[in-house]
Design goal:
The complex is a heterodimer of chains A (about 180) and B (about 400). By secondary structure, chain A is of the alpha+beta class. Helix content of chain A is about 20%, strand content about 30%. Chain B is about 40% helix and about 20% strand. In chain B, helix 1 crosses helix 3. In chain B, the strands form two sheets. Chain B has a ten-stranded mixed β-sheet, sandwiched between helices. In chain B, strands 5-6 form a two-stranded antiparallel ribbon. The chains are: A alpha+beta (about 180), B alpha/beta (about 400).
């Protein structure tokens, strides 16, 4: 939980954007932390893919006893959000009454203050709010939640967001960071 | 493979403000040494399971500290860490050390001193057993990570919160009868349902407390125990470890099943027994939902049905297989590094027939412990057998 200012310089900036890692071998889309190898096929070439930021709450819990960095935010909702691109990500769901949260709720990402570090450092990252304009035709009904993520590649072609949005310098920054981190291991 | 259990010891499992980590290690260790009838100089290697002394107690090198204060110098000593599976991993290394033929007598200690810090600090330290830099950056804690598993199980198998509450009721029934347990009260399904929410859908009585405790074992070559027929003839006949996923987001119920099922299959083969042969089991349940998951992984029930035993009686003391007669982690608490070792000590007491009144099973011969750690990352299985007159 606690990180030093130096570590924050590595961890912080990537968290400002919402992205996932696309395996170039099997096209599996994995959470952002899977940058050493694909957990499905073992492929070692993964590239960042920015996400549109919309998805569906497929699981959630309400945290009543938070870790130190989240003190004061409790009770808060942490959801498992299945992004429209097919990858499942964990994130807080905010700006909604606890009793209004349910599996199947459409949500969208928003950049928020995530938490406070022990040195008073502020972490910004992606939280989710209820999507005020959910797509009319639901992409994945709640009942399909158990379906394996195999659908993902078909639904979100690799050509979609990746090449175009990877160009900005911001998107390249996390890649450099992670490469450096990998080399030190 | 047969590794003799020469001695066992444990401290009470509770909040112990008057005792330090080293106090717990020495108390448990001396208990095992006395029970084994050996002297510290007989011990050739010491494995100390401890998860978080750096965070909980601001001290490190726990293995070396233990070696000094237990008086086993110059034997080798090392600290072992594998999240909540730590104690079981220390035991595994002890078993391997004997089975390899390299040592005759080794000592295994598991200990954790958690209550020097406030809950919020301790919760943060515990969260480091998962990826606190990435996945748990989202505000997840261990209770809430497991709560997601519980809801997933409920979605897929139709389990209700009331159904799950029976697991807490069973554990507390036995925990109330275990003088070494942290929480010693019985409760009803209604009381479980009414207890405070910790991480929806998990409630207070379905969550383990933070506990200070130590447990220890002295292991030896089979022949050494055989030559002492007056001692209880309990042997470890299988020890198998596995890893699973370190991330709650990608941890499916199938993964949770495999985490125990893979090493359990290997362990049954190693011991030459089947799931049907098991009389008593200690299954990791720092949260209620983990008990049914463990019951399924060990092959006592089909996936999706592991919760039924607590309701229909088949996992109670006189049922088909008695699960967590100690009260489980829900009542003993979960002193992280101690837990795996405590499970072993509790099962060995069952096989020796020395478990406390009210929780001693009827003449059990074969027992199993299943310890897990991390979001779904460590699976540890040990099988124990009473082998008299062979």
């Amino acid at each position: 939980m606690t990180v030093s200012a130096i570590e924050f310089s590595r961890l912080g900036p990537p968290k400002l954007q919402l992205y996932a890692m696309r395996c170039q071998s099997c096209k599996q889309l994995s959470p952002w932390w899977e940058h050493f190898h694909c957990y499905k096929c073992g492929g070692e070439v993964l590239t960042e893919e920015l996400l549109e930021g919309r998805g569906e709450l497929t699981n959630y819990t309400v945290v009543y006893y938070p870790p130190r960095d989240f003190l004061g935010q409790e009770p808060y909702v942490v959801g498992h959000i299945t992004m429209d691109e097919g990858v499942l990500l964990p994130a807080p769901v905010v700006d909604t009454a606890l009793e209004d949260v349910q599996v199947g709720t459409r949500v969208k990402s928003t950049l928020r203050r995530m938490k406070l570090g022990h040195e008073g450092d502020i972490y910004y990252s992606q939280k989710f709010v209820v999507d005020p304009n959910p797509p009319k035709k639901r992409a994945r009904p709640a009942a399909a939640k158990a379906a394996p993520a195999k659908k993902a590649p078909a639904k979100a072609p690799a050509t979609k967001a990746a090449p175009a949005k990877k160009a900005p310098a911001k998107a390249a920054a996390p890649a450099r960071t992670r490469t450096a981190a990998a080399k030190t291991k | 493979m047969r590794v003799g259990v020469l001695g066992i010891g444990k401290t009470p499992h509770k909040i112990q403000h008057s005792k330090s980590l080293r106090d717990l290690i020495v108390e448990a260790g001396r208990g095992a040494i006395a029970d084994a009838g050996v002297s510290p100089s007989d011990i050739e290697m010491l494995y100390v399971g401890n998860v978080g002394s750096v965070g909980f107690n601001y001290e490190n090198s726990t293995g070396l500290m233990a070696a000094h204060h237990l008086g086993v110098v110059p034997a080798g000593a090392v600290r072992v860490e594998a999240a909540c599976g730590t104690g079981a991993w220390a035991l595994h290394l002890g078993v391997v050390a004997i089975a390899s033929g390299l040592y005759d007598t080794v000592m295994v200690v598991g200990a954790e001193k958690m209550n020097d810090l406030a809950t919020v600090e301790a919760t943060s330290i515990i969260a480091q057993a998962a990826d606190s830099k990435e996945e748990y950056f989202s505000g997840l804690t261990f209770p809430s990570g497991v709560a997601l598993t519980a809801r997933k199980y409920m979605q897929i198998y139709g389990l209700t919160e009331e159904d799950l509450a029976h697991t807490a009721v069973k554990n507390h029934h036995y925990g109330a009868r275990n003088p070494f347990a942290h929480l010693r009260f019985e409760c009803t399904v209604e009381e479980v349902m009414k207890s405070a929410k910790v991480a929806d859908p998990l409630k207070l009585y379905e969550v383990c407390p933070m506990t200070d405790a130590g447990s220890a074992l002295i292991l030896c070559r089979e022949e050494i125990l055989r030559d002492q027929p007056d001692k209880p003839q309990v042997y470890i006949t299988a020890s198998q470890m596995a890893t699973g996923t370190w991330y709650a987001a990608t941890d499916t119920l199938e993964d949770a099943y495999r985490l125990f099922n893979e090493p359990a299959k290997r362990a049954y083969a190693m011991a030459g027994v089947t799931a049907d042969d098991i009389d008593v089991a200690e299954i990791y349940n720092s949260f209620s939902i983990q008990e049914p998951l463990g019951i399924e992984g060990l092959g006592f029930a089909e996936p999706g049905e592991g919760w039924k035993g607590a309701k229909d009686g088949s996992t109670w003391k006189d049922g088909k297989v008695a699960v967590n007669l100690s009260g489980g982690l829900l009542c003993k608490g979960h002193p992280l590094g101690a837990t795996g070792a405590t499970q072993a000590v509790d099962i060995i007491e069952q096989l020796r027939g020395t478990a406390p009144e009210g929780i001693q099973a009827q003449d059990p011969e074969i027992g199993i412990t299943a310890c897990r750690g991390g979001p779904g990352a460590v699976g540890a299985i040990h099988i124990y057998q009473r082998l008299e007159g062979e």
